[in-house]
Amino acid sequence: MKCPMLTMYAATSDYPESYQDRDCLKEECAWWDSTNNNCAVLQLSKSIYYAGTHIAQMEIKMPHEGQFRK
Length: 70
What we know:
Blueprint: H1 4-12, E1 32-33, E2 38-39, H2 40-61
Antiparallel strand pairs: 1-2
């Protein structure tokens, strides 16, 4: 797996082709989540996506203002 943080750095450097160490360091990395055995950056993006999905479902189920008028 390519590291999202190191890949982001490589894109901003003057010579991105010369920067080859972009592989995930896993347990050696500060962003490694040992609970889920996954990169914390990727886990955070998944969590935000699922939260947005649940919020969208709540919006669909909410009653509209016109339903309470006589």
